[in-house]
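Page 42, continued from yesterday. The earlier attempt failed because a stray header line got pasted into the input along with the sequence. Redoing it now with the clean sequence only.
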Amino acid sequence: MTTRRDFVQEILADPTNDLLRLVFADFLEENGDQDRAEFIRLQIELSHWHYRFDMEWKEHSERNDLIDRVSELFEANHTQWIYRVPSSCKANDHLTYWERGCLKRIATSGEFYLEDINKVLDREPADCIRLFLHSRQRNEPAAPAWAVVLATSPLLRWVTRIDIEESGLPLALFYTVIASPHLTGLRDIWCQAAVGPAGVAALGLNSSLVSLQAVSLVNLLTDPPEAAELPELVEAFRTLAAAPHLGGLRYLDLRHCGVREGSLVALAGSAHLPREMKLSLEQNWQPSAELAALLAGRFVFYQS
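This time it went through. Structure tokens are written below.
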């Protein structure tokens, strides 16, 4: 028999599939949750309405009726719906954070992820599971025990985004988690910590990162050298550029990272990075006109 947990997992694994959500709505209705079932169906219907200035009055009226009914259902039930999300998670209960009947995202910290994700899988689907990596002690030489356990857990497959906002994050923590073979669903990495060349190389070495679409490595180096590029950084970008599993990467943010000609030539020469990938290079060394032309021709978007 299909359970609520089964539906939550299916929606997390395929968040753009409206049919799954509609079947979930049928399941909810059969199990006595008519309001949530109607909410899912109406939000999906609204998602297919594209506002136009030349809409007929009848179209405007029908769309406004849908919006009013969605708001009515949400106001009557959102406290109960958000209560299903573990209190240690971050989930916004404003209607704008719900899309096609489900939360757009649920966020939790790395230290409590394994406890939280089991509760989430039993209760509430979402488009995105965000994992925040942080540590109670800054600049630790070794990864904390919870990070080692986390990296070995198959439950990491549900993480779709990793956020790292601490400049003093222990590098061993980042390397341990990002090397996990279970991050098969990870789509986005947003990192503001100075994870260095080893952090770049880790992305190229972990062949499980097959779903990765966007990577931001702002402030990659603590003190980017002004006169020359670090040889180990060039080698790290060669490793990244040679990774077949990064063929789906659509955005690479390298602002203020200390990249120079060697790293950029490696990226431009990649046989795997897609031509539609956007590359952001603000606050870096100014490339020569020849290299700038090479990058502009290799990638769709380029910023100096």
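Notes: DSSP finds eleven helices and nine strands in the chain.
Reminder to self: strip header lines before submitting.
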